TrEMBL record:
<dbReference type="InterPro" id="IPR050991">
    <property type="entry name" value="ECM_Regulatory_Proteins"/>
</dbReference>
<dbReference type="InterPro" id="IPR013783">
    <property type="entry name" value="Ig-like_fold"/>
</dbReference>
<feature type="region of interest" description="Disordered">
    <location>
        <begin position="226"/>
        <end position="245"/>
    </location>
</feature>
<dbReference type="Pfam" id="PF00041">
    <property type="entry name" value="fn3"/>
</dbReference>
<keyword id="KW-0677">Repeat</keyword>
<protein>
    <submittedName>
        <fullName>Tenascin-R</fullName>
    </submittedName>
</protein>
<dbReference type="InterPro" id="IPR036116">
    <property type="entry name" value="FN3_sf"/>
</dbReference>
<dbReference type="InterPro" id="IPR003961">
    <property type="entry name" value="FN3_dom"/>
</dbReference>
<feature type="domain" description="Fibronectin type-III">
    <location>
        <begin position="8"/>
        <end position="94"/>
    </location>
</feature>
Length: 245
């Protein structure tokens, strides 16, 4: 007489995974029932552990960021149950080339290499997560974090994500640029009265000459005319501030 088929295992799930392995777990039936795990056209016999309510088995030597299908059977007296199946994925590889590619007083631009079109990213910073899609056709991914404080050190953690499973993550520390204020006191002498616009244009040209960006804030202070050779000349003092990253 043929033994009846045992019940299928219950609670079959993936309990853990990394880039190269998936750990499977299910409920024990009883001490007389063993199991067969079917995967990649091969069968693995698994005994029922004594005294344990749950059975675990780790499948190794897998490929990162890949979807796998597993089928599990209960076995009693060489008779299998109908079987239950699940699909699970390995964690993707961590992003490579993670670095700060640019920064100023209030932002840091981060850059890393794309993994593939099926892998997205999560940037973890300041106790919050930002989801970032993988751009089509781009070898590098960039993301700018704004509204930061000048001259401050920040830590960023980056994860690859495949089918809602994260990689182990990589981290870096980067700093925002300091905030500089350049103050100049400059006097001009002219036979004609100089306007504030004239002074700003003159100083912008001076800054360009020395390779500095002409982002100037000008305060003009009037000075009493001086007398030279019987002719009156007007003199203006210009105070300039420049913010540089």
């Amino acid at each position: 007489m043929t033994a009846p088929s045992p019940l299928n295992p219950e609670g079959f799930k993936a309990s853990d995974q990394n880039e190269s392995s998936i750990t499977l777990q299910w409920n024990k039936v009883n001490n007389n029932v063993s199991f067969v795990l079917q995967f990649n056209n091969s069968d693995t016999n698994i005994s029922s552990p004594d005294g344990a309510e749950a059975v675990t088995h780790t499948v190794s030597r897998l490929t990162a960021g890949t979807k796998y299908t597993f089928t599990l059977f209960s076995v009693f007296e060489d008779v299998r149950s109908s079987g239950v199946s699940l699909t699970a994925v390995t964690a993707p590889l961590n992003p490579e080339g993670f670095k700060a590619s640019d920064q100023n007083e209030s932002s840091i631009t981060l850059q890393w290499n794309e993994v593939n079109n099926n892998v997205s990213f999560v940037l973890q910073f300041n106790n919050s997560d930002t989801n970032i899609s993988s751009p089509d056709g781009a070898e590098a991914v960039t993301h700018t974090v704004s509204r930061l404080t000048a001259g401050t050190k920040y830590t960023f953690s980056l994860f690859s994500v495949f089918e809602d499973v994260r990689s182990s993550g990589v981290s870096l520390t980067a700093v925002t640029g300091p905030y500089y204020v350049l103050v100049m006191n400059q006097q001009f002498k002219s036979l004609t009265k100089l306007s504030e616009t004239d002074i700003k244009d003159t100083m912008a040209e001076l800054f360009r000459k020395y390779g500095l960006p002409p982002e100037l804030s000008v305060n003009v202070l009037s000075v009493k005319p001086s007398v030279s050779g019987g002719k009156g000349t007007s003199s203006l003092a210009a105070e300039l501030e420049q913010n540089r990253g």
